[in-house]
Design brief:
The chain is mainly β and about 240 residues long. The protein has one domain (about 10-240). The chain has helices spanning about 75-80, 85-90, and strands at about 35, 40, 50-60, 60-70, 95-105, 110, 120, 125-135, 150, 155-160, 165-170, 175-180, 205-210, 215-220, 230, 240. Strands 3, 4, 5, 7, 8, 9, 11, 12, 13, 15 and 16 form an eleven-stranded antiparallel β-sheet that branches. A five-stranded antiparallel β-sheet has the order 1-2-6-10-14, with no helix packed on it.
Length: about 240
Amino acid sequence: MNHRRCAPLCALVTAVAVAGALAAGAPASPQPIHDAKGRGATGLHGVRYCEIFVLSGALPAVTVKVYNTIGLSRCPSAQWKAFDANELKTELGAIGIVLNGPRHWLMDSAFTPAPGPVRRFHAMRLRLVAKLKITTAAGLVQTPYTPRTIYRDNTFTWDKGRTVYELVAPDGTRYVMQAYSQIVDPHLKAAALPRLGRRIKPPAGWHYRVRVLRHPIVLTTTAAHKPAVIVQDELQNTYQREG
């Protein structure tokens, strides 16, 4: 078992909540503006973040709580590298821990009507942003290009004029990249995303595309009635279903 990651649970990593070169015209160092009550933020595009997944229970009723640094920090590298998944698992009495990051947001803003509580993990503060329910052993494995349901209440917005990166499924369903990952490839940068289609290998019928938005994309999800549906590519970049 890897010292820092919890295998095979590390395959579970799915960015959920609520992307580092930026698009032309954006500032070199994005400065997001956060709501004082933790309900949302603007200026998120390009901002670094990390997540900790805490697994509890037992099959067929495993719950995964997702904690995110959004609005609290940019996941300082020294603090993040100091985490040990096995040590956290023992400390928290969890059945598994996944260290999911670093990642970089690609939407422009995010909003939630009811922010989750903030919890301290050693020197780092993270907010509860989502939950997953897992009922089978297969559910513990995140297979690339396979949809997964995330229960959360929020709205993600990509502004008009933003360049977006999408996966299009064989039935025409579109998934927009909400975050790029530096987990598999620590050197992946936003500047490489326009050419990512030459690198990733989607299944037959899927394709990667790049487009500039003529109109904003606004994706609103609710845990009770319209949960988010996400997929990842083999680099663990995360895409959310549109519509």
